[in-house]
Amino acid sequence: MYASLRFIALTLTVFLWLLTVDSEVGCIESERHALLNFKQHLIDPSDRLASWAAADMDCCHWVGVVCHNVTGHVLQLHLRSFFPTTTDDAQWDAQYEAYERSVFGGKIDPSLLDLKHLIYLDLSFNDFNYTPIPKFLGSMGSLRYLNLSHAGFGGLIPHQLGNLSDLHYLNLGGSSYYNNLYVMNLQWLSALPLLQHLDLSSANLSKASDWVQEISKLPSLSELRLSYCDLSGFFPPMHSINFSSLTTLDLSSNSIENTSTLFWVFGLQNLLSLDLSYNQFQGPIPVHLQNLTSLRHLDLTGNTFNSSIPDWLYTFSHLEFLNLGNSNLQGTIPSSIGNLTSAISTDLSYNELEGKVPRSLGNLCNLKEIALQGNKWNQEISEIFQSLSGCVSNGLEILKLFDAQLSGQLTDELGQFKNLVVLFLGYNSISGPIPWSIGNLSSLRFLNLKNNRINGTLPQSFGQLSKLEYLNIKSNMLEGVVSEVHFANSMRLTRLISSQNQLTLEVRNNWIPPFQLNYLILRSWNLGPRFPSWLLSQKYLKYLDISNTRVSDAVPPLFWNLSSQFVYLNLSHNQIYGEIPNIPMILSTSSMIDMSSNHFNGLLPHISSNVSFLDLSDNLLSGSISHFLCYKMNEPKKMSYLNVGKNFLSGEIVGCWMKWQNLFALNLGNNNLSGSIPTSIGSLINLQSLHLYNNKFSGKLPSSLKNCKNLVTLDIGKNEFVGSIPLWIGLRFSSLVILSLHSNNFYGYIPENLCSLTSLQILDLSNNKLFGCIPRCVNNFSAMATNNNSNGPLFLFEQLIGYALSTLLESALLVIKGKVLEYSTTLQLVKSIDLSKNNLSGKIPKEVTSLQGLQSLNLSFNILIGRIPDNIGVMRSLESIDFSVNLLSGQIPQSMSSLTFLSHLNLSNNNLSGKIPLSTQLQSLRASSFIGNKLCGAPLIESCSISDVKPNIEIQRSKDFGGPEVDWFYVIMALGFAVGFGVVLGPLLLNKQWRIVYFEFLDYLGYKLWGVVAQIW
Predict the structure, then answer these.
(1) Would you indicate the residue range of the signal peptide (predicted)?
(2) What whole-number distance in Å separates Cα of residue 314 and Cα of residue 322?
């Protein structure tokens, strides 16, 4: 009998197994058709759903499809795309490119409704181009899991989702810059009694004033994430809601200002994780937080508490993650922090904390991460190593102490942190050598020591760091030789940043490094004189800077084959020679190339349209620029910054600017370019910096240039431009900071429209053919009236493109202190007016003295008359004054003695008289500054008599008669003038006809005289 029963049981088992096997060989036909229809409406650029084919009858084996192993019904669809998660930049770039190629798009077809048994749908991290979430999803009643996060949906979240009564997981969250979802209310949520996980991050909930009440009706909810949801309105009192099951709450990055509106949060006794970061809380950390005794994770980062850390916070014995960074916390860290015995991560970075790191921190045996950067510890690094020498040193993996006002030397105690993965000590004042014990950090992957005062040589023990991926030791005082031994085991190294040290690399010519780098920044090393051939082995190099490394060699041809992989390439400030080949540089992203200050020759190369920054200045390049500008005119150029100045380029610049509309800065200066400026230059509507100085350009400035209304710098000096200064310069270029038109053939008056350039800091109109008076409206140059430079357009230009890049493009030749000086790095600090070497007449307008931020004023070689303004002494910033070779008269104003910064003064060859005012500055100047006048006193050798001090301009009494002395010359001259005036004008006053004829003759004579003057000019 038992045998019969065993036979029956075995038979049933086999039967059921056969049913199972049979169900696995095919899916339900209707569901298979539904999936094919669904696929038809999707955009699948990488053909991820290639297995979804009509010829394959078993949809249960298709990618992303999970079926019931007995019934064959489709239960799950896993169609998410995978956003990069790596921390390595180069790998991230590759992963992101792969991600962009793989994301689904298109339309969600209603054929999904035929999947009656579907319980799991994941379409996250795709791109549905802001289309609304389909309402029909609310009819898929079997769904338990719905994930549409980061999928590019937009519009109103459909209330029909409230019909999914079996739903356990709902995620509609997105990033702060990508999600366009919103709700009018959340009443539909109350129909989801089984919901455990709800994520509406980045959806706009500002109109859902009842969100707390509605969400509190979800009895099973354990995880709620509402970051970036515009939650700034009224929150109900604590007694009206019930969140007893909630363990995770994320309200980060909203606009919540008052912690009193969160009283209901402080009653969540079962809460394990609370994230209130990046809100607008002020005042002390709310004391009611101590009620949350079960907390494991507390994040208050990015608020403005403006208080000390309360002692009760250190009583959270279960707390594992404490994040209080960037919260304006003050005071010290008390020793009671040692009570956080469960702590795994502590982040107190970027506050106003000071004092010393407590030794009790070293007793937290579970601590894996310590972030204390951006505070004012004012402590030696060796003291901190001692404080952390307890049991924490055995498990510590992340130590961040950069920008923490640390000093002292690195000691051998550094080697005790054998499990350290991340060590950031940059931006401090740490000195001394790197200890040999650093080689003991066998787990180290990321090391940042940049911007310190570390000296000595690089220890060879670096070669023991086999897991090291990132090394940044830039801007220190390291010197000596780096050899192959230093990289003996650096197989994982991907980023090496060590610029601005005095290190020399000495390796074999045939050395092949064990690493494959993505970043290599060795600026100011000694790599020469040969070009480092080992670079040819780096297959994944994207960022390379070997500028100023004493290389005086030709670039190996194979190196140019690597050009397609570069995002940043800097070979500048070497002596590299040879021709630059035509580089296709087919890059998927914008790239930057700097080969300036070398000896490259030949023609300008053809460059890919994807290059965004190109600097080939200060080389020996020659020939025409036209083939460069007009290359691939069917492609729009991404170029934003182009500098080919200081070469030997020649010929005209043709009108191929239409595709260059992304240009912010253009420098063609110091070449042999000629001809007129093409009108197509007006296509550069985003242009902010234009340098054409020291060429042979001629003709008039094209009126189309006024379309470039964002110009900050216009430097066209030392050319052969003609015509009057265009009025539209003052009318259109409201942001202009630098205007240099010097050494051209401009003629006519200085237009008063220029006075509208209130941001102007440098005005150079020297060495032209300008005449007339200096406009009195110069006091409108308000940027010259102040010493404040921090918010001007030139400063904003630097912020836009980066200070380092702007200094490559922004420079100016100025005549200051009698010398031609080139300003670049300090250009934004210079304020100068140069109107010298023209034919300007009239008086120096007293309004110029309102420009109290002006540093240099040059009006020399004109025909100015009158006195130097008496109150010139109020221009306290003046360092250089040149009024030489004019017709100025009168005394040197006494107020000039107040110019304490004045180091250059030239008043020579005028008609000045009297005594040179006494001051420390004026008497220290050369005598040549005052010659060619009727002056006396130091530094001149002529001493002053009484009459020299007070010129004889008053009527003096006769020595013989005690009365006024009569000067008969002036009496006779006055009588002669009266008689002559009467003879000429008397008949005119008596005879009207004579008056008409006389004035007609004067008009005719004036027109003839003006014609002669115009021909001369």
Answers:
(1) 1-23
(2) 10
| Residue pLDDT, tens place only, 408-436 | 999 999 999 999 999 999 999 999 999 99
Cα gap 749→724, rounded to integer Å: 8
Q: Cα–Cα distance between 712 and 792 in angstroms, integer?
A: 10
pLDDT tens per residue, range 519-574:
999 999 999 899 999 999 999 999 999 999 999 999 999 998 887 788 899 999 99
Residue-range domains of the chain with CATH: 21-114 (no CATH), 591-889 (3.80.10.10), 890-964 (no CATH)
Q: Tell me, rounded to whole angstroms, the distance of Cα 68 from its chain centroid.
A: 54
- Could you count the other beta carbons within 10 Å of the beta carbon of residue 272? 18
Please name the residues in contact with 803: beta carbons below 8 A apart, sequence gap of 6 or more: none
**Composition of the chain by helix, strand, coil, percent to 5:** 25, 20, 50
Of residues 21, 32, 91, the one with CA closest to residue 56: 32
Radius of gyration of the chain from Cα atoms? 40
Helix (H, G, I), strand (E, B) or coil at 713: strand
Bond from prior residue into 529 cis (ω within 30 degrees of 0) = yes
Q: 770 by DSSP, 3-state: which?
A: strand
| Residue entry with tokens 């494959």 | 516
Angle between helices 992-1016 and 968-990 (to 10 degrees): 110
Q: Is the separation of the CB atoms in 597 and 621 below 8 Å?
A: no
Strand partners, 520: 496, 544
Q: How many whole angstroms separate alpha carbon 633 and alpha carbon 604?
A: 16
pTM score, whole prediction: 0.80
CB atoms within 10 A of CB 676: 14
Distance of CA 1 to the CA centre of its chain: 87
Contacts of 944 (CB under 8 A, 6+ apart): 915, 936, 937
Residue 226 scores a pLDDT above 60: yes
- In which residue are the tokens 């009998």 written? 1
Distance CA 77, CA 72 (A): 14
Rounded Cα gap, residues 337 and 8, in angstroms: 69
Strand locations in 467-564 (E): 470-472, 477-482, 495-497, 502-505, 519-521, 543-545
Q: Contacts by 330-338 with C-beta closer than 8 Å and gap 24+?
A: 330/306, 331/355, 332/308, 332/356, 333/309, 333/357, 333/358, 333/361, 334/309, 334/358, 335/359, 335/360, 336/311, 336/360, 337/361, 337/364, 338/314, 338/363, 338/364
Q: Are residues 251 and 275 in contact, defined by beta-carbon separation less than 8 angstroms?
A: yes
Cα dihedral 627→630→633→637 (10° resolution): 110
Helices (H) and strands (E) in the chain, counts: 15, 59
- The greatest distance separating any two alpha carbons of the chain, rounded to the nearest whole angstrom, comes to 168
Q: What is the pLDDT of residues 502-520, one digit of tens each?
A: 999 999 999 999 999 999 9
In Å, what is the CA distance from 625 to each residue of 247, 519, 673, 769, 952? 67, 32, 9, 31, 66
